[in-house]
Design a protein that fits this description.
The chain is α/β, with parallel strands linked by helices. It has six helices and seven strands, in the order E-H-E-E-E-H-E-H-H-E-E-H-H. The chain is 45% helix and 17% strand. The relative contact order is 0.20.
Length: 151
Amino acid sequence: MCDSEHPAVASGHGRSPRLDRALVEAEINRDNVYVTNAVKHFKWKPQGKVRLHQKPNAKEIAACRQWWTQELAVVKPKVLCCLGATAAQAVFGAKFRVTKQRGEFLELVDGVQGTATIHPSAILRADDERREVEYQDFVDDLRAVAERLAS
């Protein structure tokens, strides 16, 4: 994600109505957000007429590190917000757990502050009764990013 003065990168997937709505609620201008993928390939397996995403393995994540670190160097964000476990583990290491560590801010290279939250698609996978709670928690995580951008 990025704010016009202090860009912040979100390692995750691209345009999403859920993400767009959450950014509005968190008061982050979507036009100033840079979104990229921590892993630069789409791994899937066929399931009938659909393609099911598959989580990349450690070797695939490591192979893509050079590209997102170069993006980080070019964008020069103030805050990096990882969307989902794959992005968070690519940035913070394999032991990072979004479910336990979401919303924590960690110091990265060049003074960049890093944090992680769930991927917007995880909201859709939540049970009906949990979906709104998950969405509000997601917005709260983005509000914390907005506060860091404003400081």
